[in-house]
Amino acid sequence: MSLAALLVLADGRFPAGGHAHSGGAEAACKAGRIHDAATLEDFCRGRLHTTGLTSAALAAAAALGLDPADLDTAADARTPSPALRTAARRLGRQLLRAARATWPSPELDALAVAFPRGAHQPVVLGITARAAGLGPLDAAHVAAYESVSGPATATVRLLGLDPFEASGVLARLAPALDDVCVEAATAALLARSEGLEALPAASSPLLDISAQVHADWPVRLFAS
Q1: 15 located within any domain
Q2: What is the 3-state secondary structure (H, E, C) of 35-81?
Q3: Inside any domain, residue 154
């Protein structure tokens, strides 16, 4: 495991396109569900234990070497919102471009051929982690961290929230994030022997509904 590679992959400046997505925070801000640091923390905690857990497990399973086509189908089944499926594939395509330039790998090349329009981002993330010499728990950490850091960063722009407060939210979530990552990596190991049904399918219906509404906004700051 390369700690430096993990830091590069998790760095918000890595050109994977995440800066253009709010993880549902834009819709939540407009609806008044996020309006300060406390409500941002509630939002991120809920997202971590639902879509964050699911994404982390998919990424861990991909890092273990499970079939990416099967994992992409599993990701589709766990993403009921068409808008979120589109966003996940767009992010996957952008991540794949950055990953192939950073950590050239036959696996990444094969994924680009198999999914010319983009695979789901957590699947690409897991294979990228393998190419970077990282393991399933590392991949889970990146996926889980992205699930909360994206909304936190977006809220600074959307509400003018103090960035120190947003960073404090992420710090307070760190113990829960570690627990989610262990759960995700454990599920991925189980899926290798028992099938993909062992992967979590935690969902957040309000995020799905809000994503569909958000996609129809004529003017928005973030793509999702």
Answers
A1: no
A2: CCHHHHHHHHHHHHHHHHHHHHHHHHHHHHCCCHHHHHHHHHHCCCC
A3: yes
Which of 128, 57, 63 has the alpha carbon at shortest distance from 91? 128
Question: For residue 99, what is the domain's CATH number?
Answer: 1.10.4190.10
Residue 45 near residue 172, CB atoms below 8 Å: no
CA angle 118–139–209, rounded 5-degree value: 55
Please indicate, yes or no, if residue 180 is contained in any of the structural domains: yes
Span 126-137, pLDDT tens digits: 999 999 999 999
149 with 19: CB under 8 angstroms? no
pTM of the model: 0.95
Helix ranges restricted to H, 195-224: 205-215
Q: How far apart are CA 140 and CA 53, in angstroms?
A: 8
Q: What is the mean pLDDT of each run of 10 residues along the chain (224 residues)?
A: 87 88 96 97 97 98 97 97 96 97 96 96 98 97 96 96 97 98 98 96 92 94 92
In a domain, 81, yes or no: yes
Q: How many domains does the chain have?
A: 1
Structural contact between residues 176 and 48, judged by C-beta atoms closer than 8 angstroms: yes
Q: What is the pLDDT of residues 25-38, one digit of tens each?
A: 999 999 999 999 99
Contact 6, 142 (CB under 8 A): yes
Report how far residue 152's alpha carbon sits from residue 146's, in angstroms, rounded to the nearest whole number: 10
Domain range enclosing 43: 3-9+21-215
